[in-house]
Design brief:
Length: 164
């Protein structure tokens, strides 16, 4: 059974493998991270861990029994009991309810562990799968997301108020 774990330095090789294995799949629905992301992976990863340590963000990975990463679920910009949610799941588990179940679990953790009351997430108009995940996980559309919010694509902001 996959387990949602807080991002740790030891996850770096599995996270990189996940990103590389799914790069083409992700690029079909969201903006590609670009070669610089992979060229500078170690520095970026360490910067993420530092942001997490500082309480600015909280990063999670969905880890399979074999130690491979099946998804990334992140809370960005934790300010005033609010954060932005971002997530991506491996192609091999897409369409099986994994993203929805894990987003729901992260919503519980966001309230219980991080004291958050509101989560926001943006998705592009053409990312129907992400729209379904958010809706099934209790998020509602709250406004237009600008291309600057979504790597050059237009979309919608979704929001979920969390129970304490």
């Amino acid at each position: 059974m996959p387990e949602l774990k807080r991002l740790h330095a030891d996850h770096a090789p599995a996270v990189l493998a996940f990103e590389l294995a799914n790069r083409t799949y992700f690029a079909a629905s969201i903006s590609d991270r670009g070669d610089d992301f992979f060229d500078q992976f170690t520095d970026r990863y360490n910067a993420s861990l530092a942001e997490q340590e500082a309480g600015i963000c909280a990063f999670y990975v969905l880890v399979a029994e074999d130690g491979s990463v099946l998804g990334r679920f992140n809370l960005y910009d934790l300010v005033d009991s609010t954060a932005r949610l971002g997530y991506r799941v491996a192609q091999q588990v897409a369409g099986r309810g994994v993203a929805t179940a894990t987003v729901q679990e992260l919503c519980r953790l966001a309230a219980a562990r991080h004291g958050l009351r509101t989560l926001r997430a943006a998705t592009s108009h053409d990312n129907v799968a992400s729209q379904k995940v958010l809706t099934k996980a209790g998020f509602v559309p709250v406004g237009t997301a600008a291309p600057a919010d979504l790597g050059g694509k237009s979309g919608t902001w979704y929001q979920r108020d969390l129970q304490p």
